[in-house]
């Protein structure tokens, strides 16, 4: 007498956060009779691809594109598969994806924008030459939300023209971009 036992995942890795470039091993142990087949797949936006036909999924030198949810399924044709998920967060240093020079006439409003991708989210600072700009000083406003930071001049004057630096920082590093406000 051979008893059929539905597949059951008995142990699976917890959600993890790692730095880009690290190696990661995800584990998914399953029980059942007959012995279930265990597969891993990455639930990415680019279609769902099988990653591993095994209880262990090894990722060496993980990249930011490999972050997201990983799904383990245990299948043995006795009953519906047992499916569990693990979330992998990949930290990476900031990179500035958008910083354009901007023109504004004297007396008009001028807006400089700096966009940076980073995990954890970047903190922004603005400088003119070597001077750090502070919110509310000399008619400027700095607003940072998520990936975007804006430096707004409410009433552009000649002395506002010139080169500004946007610095994006998180615990993994920093990067900067030069942006010119011109007349």
From TrEMBL:
<keyword id="KW-1003">Cell membrane</keyword>
<dbReference type="GO" id="GO:0007155">
    <property type="term" value="P:cell adhesion"/>
</dbReference>
<keyword id="KW-0677">Repeat</keyword>
<dbReference type="InterPro" id="IPR050876">
    <property type="entry name" value="IgLON_domain"/>
</dbReference>
<dbReference type="InterPro" id="IPR036179">
    <property type="entry name" value="Ig-like_dom_sf"/>
</dbReference>
<dbReference type="GO" id="GO:0005886">
    <property type="term" value="C:plasma membrane"/>
</dbReference>
<protein>
    <submittedName>
        <fullName>OBCAM protein</fullName>
    </submittedName>
</protein>
<keyword id="KW-0732">Signal</keyword>
<dbReference type="Pfam" id="PF13927">
    <property type="entry name" value="Ig_3"/>
</dbReference>
<keyword id="KW-0325">Glycoprotein</keyword>
<keyword id="KW-1015">Disulfide bond</keyword>
<keyword id="KW-0449">Lipoprotein</keyword>
<dbReference type="InterPro" id="IPR003599">
    <property type="entry name" value="Ig_sub"/>
</dbReference>
<keyword id="KW-0130">Cell adhesion</keyword>
<dbReference type="InterPro" id="IPR013783">
    <property type="entry name" value="Ig-like_fold"/>
</dbReference>
<dbReference type="InterPro" id="IPR003598">
    <property type="entry name" value="Ig_sub2"/>
</dbReference>
<dbReference type="InterPro" id="IPR013098">
    <property type="entry name" value="Ig_I-set"/>
</dbReference>
<dbReference type="GO" id="GO:0098552">
    <property type="term" value="C:side of membrane"/>
</dbReference>
<feature type="domain" description="Ig-like">
    <location>
        <begin position="93"/>
        <end position="180"/>
    </location>
</feature>
<keyword id="KW-0393">Immunoglobulin domain</keyword>
<dbReference type="Pfam" id="PF07679">
    <property type="entry name" value="I-set"/>
</dbReference>
<dbReference type="InterPro" id="IPR007110">
    <property type="entry name" value="Ig-like_dom"/>
</dbReference>
<comment type="similarity">
    <text>Belongs to the immunoglobulin superfamily. IgLON family.</text>
</comment>
<feature type="domain" description="Ig-like">
    <location>
        <begin position="7"/>
        <end position="89"/>
    </location>
</feature>
<keyword id="KW-0472">Membrane</keyword>
<keyword id="KW-0336">GPI-anchor</keyword>
